[in-house]
Amino acid sequence: MEDLYDSLFSSSQFFIEQLARLILPEVPEDGPWLVLVGPERKIWTDDRTRFQRHFPDPQTLLCYCEHIEDGQDPVLGSMEGGCLIGSELYTERFPVGYLFVILPGYTRATAQANLALMELFFSQMRLLCNLLDKNNQLHQLHLNHLSRTSKVLSGRPD
Fold first, then answer.
1. How do residues 37-48 score in pLDDT, each as one tens digit?
2. Of the four, 17, 79, 117, 152, which is 20 to 30 A from 1 by CA?
3. Bridge partners of 23?
4. Model confidence at 97, in pLDDT bands (50, 70, 90)?
5. How many CA atoms lie within 13 A of 67 on its CB side?
6. For the residues of 73-142, what is the DSSP string, one character each?
7. What is each CA distance from 83 to 69, 76, 104, 108, in whole angstroms?
């Protein structure tokens, strides 16, 4: 049972899904919006319609992940009607994926002027990732303990 918990709680896929469920509902409808990209290049966004309108070919956005992997972190890019800024997300234990902030109406110059603020935002998101990971580790330890001590979970007869 402990191996099952370990594989679940150390999965980047599981983690980024948790993160998406945690932060994406909090994004306001107007203004900047967020896109999360998992390590396997699966995409989550708070506004699928806007995403499909601005990125009819998701590969356009995924190319920025490669720029981040090549050392451009954060990455700043232009798109029709605005800019995007992206950065890698990670915990102390594993890479989580990438976070992009889409800034409608921004030029590269206005995005560049706000880059320090965006870097602070990305730092806060990495802090959130570390806290979520610590919470998951605590749950995993608790479940491991229960699997050793519970008659039901350990499979031991009475």
1. 998 999 999 889
2. 17
3. none
4. very high
5. 17
6. -SEEEEETTEEEEEEEEE-SSSEEEEEEEEEET--HHHHHHTHHHHHHHHHHHHHHHHHHHHHHHHHHHH
7. 19, 7, 6, 6
